Amino acid sequence: MGLSYDRVRSSCYFRLVREVNRQVWINFLSLLPSTLVTVLVIGIAFLRFYDERDFELLGFVSQPRVWGNRLTVATLLAALANFGVEWNRRNRETDRLAEEAQRRAEEEQRRVEEEQRAARRNRIETVWRIASIRFQLDPNETNRQELLKTLAVLEEYRETLQHY
């Protein structure tokens, strides 16, 4: 028994770790396009506005203008990827908010229905108490018929409760 419990516990732990790792990677990858855009823009500015007199490092780049153009194209692609990531994130957020609103509406509907059932149950119980008291105080045929009608309503109510 203990062995299977440990296996279940460890498999749940590994599933949780795997899910957390997956979420970390998703978060990392969603940040990557915007970070890449920033780095590429810095690279473009570095290649476009400076030369080897400003930075000796630029002496190693054979054609700074061509590389600047390549980085511009890469920046546009990264910006497009970032747009897609943000679009997806906002759609997920909109869906989450819509689901939350739907859940709240369903909960409110259930609460209203429960209040209506409770009010109906209270009305039936009140009618039963009144009919019972009347019959106890004056056991005539009219009060007996009233009590029998109330019992029939109670039976019907009990049957409807069994269907829920």
What does this structure look like?
The protein is mainly alpha-helical and about 160 residues long. The protein has one domain (about 1-160). Helices cover about 90% and strands about 0% of the residues. Helix 1 packs across helix 2 and helix 2 runs antiparallel to helix 3. It is rod-shaped.
What's this, in brief?
With 164 residues, this protein is an all-alpha fold.
**Average pLDDT across residues?**
79
Silhouette: rod-shaped
How far apart the termini lie comes to 39 Å
Helix percentage range: over 70%
- Specify the biggest β-sheet: none
Low-confidence stretches: none
Number of spatially distinct domains: 1
Gyration radius over CA = 37 Å
Number of strands: 0
Percent of residues in beta strands: under 5%
Helical element count?
Answer: 3
- Which series of helices and strands comes N to C? HHH
Helix/strand structural class: mainly alpha
How are the elements arranged and paired?
Elements: H1 2-49, H2 64-137, H3 141-162
Helix pairs in contact: 1-2, 2-3
Name its key features.
single chain; 164 residues; mainly alpha; 3 helices; 88% helix; rod-shaped
